[in-house]
Amino acid sequence: MKKFLHENGLSLVLIVITVIALAGQILVGWYDFNGELKDYGRPAITLLTYLTTGHCIESVFENWESEFLQMGLYVLLTVKLFQKGSSESKSLSEPEEVDREPSPTRRGAPWPVKRGGWVLKLYENSLSIAFFLLFGLSFYLHAIGGLKEYNTENALKGKQEILSLWQFMGTSAFWFQSLQNWQSEFLSVLSIVVLSIFLRQKGSPESKPVDAPNDETGE
């Protein structure tokens, strides 16, 4: 168990933090939504019922969507683009391990590398593909949740307007929800790319060595 915790500590801690934050968001969202229902003279709903509401679904996947888009684009952009002095960039002049051709004879090579062909080609791009698939799923669920929330709010206000999914995705409300998260995610990536040029964190693989010159590029 001690070995398992040592080898997987980073992912385990991040899972715990994510679950706690998500649970907190759902709980306070439930109270917030019931407060809104109370304002309109409607009865409160249970936590389980709240999980199926647009208020809950939209708030969760609106944020997940931007995270997966950010990571997918970042993975692709760092293949060809550079930033002098940043620990997040590949070297400007020296070849990188990640650019060499995969060898099926390398010890412990994953089976797609040994298989070759289209399987290898897919595996070579599997990280960005996975992020964009997760982005697409989250984008769709955000739209579903946002539509339910939009129509629910109209019903509470006594409005007769009921939109379809495609109609809702064409509204400024939907794109405001998306873009306000997208810009913040890209700003956070820009921050670590630029700040890692000048600032250090001893012991972190996201930082250059403390004594590295500012113009040294890569980790």
Please characterize this protein's 3D structure.
By secondary structure, the protein is an all-alpha fold. It is 66% helix and 0% strand. It contains 8 helices and no strands. The protein has helices at residues 2-39, 47-50, 54-80, 111-115, 117-124, 126-156, 165-169, 172-198. Helix 3 (54-80) packs antiparallel against helix 6 (126-156). The longest helix has 38 residues, at 2-39. The chain is elongated. The two termini are 31 Å apart.
Helical content (DSSP H or I, runs of 4+): 55-70%
Give the amount of beta strand, in percent: under 5%
For the record, give the distance between the C-alpha atoms at the N and C termini, rounded to a whole number.
Answer: 31 Å
Element string (H = helix, E = strand): HHHHHHHH
**Biggest sheet architecture:** none
How would the blueprint of this fold be written?
Blueprint: H1 2-39, H2 47-50, H3 54-80, H4 111-115, H5 117-124, H6 126-156, H7 165-169, H8 172-198
Helix pairs in contact: 3-6, 3-8
Short description:
The protein has 219 residues and is an all-alpha fold.
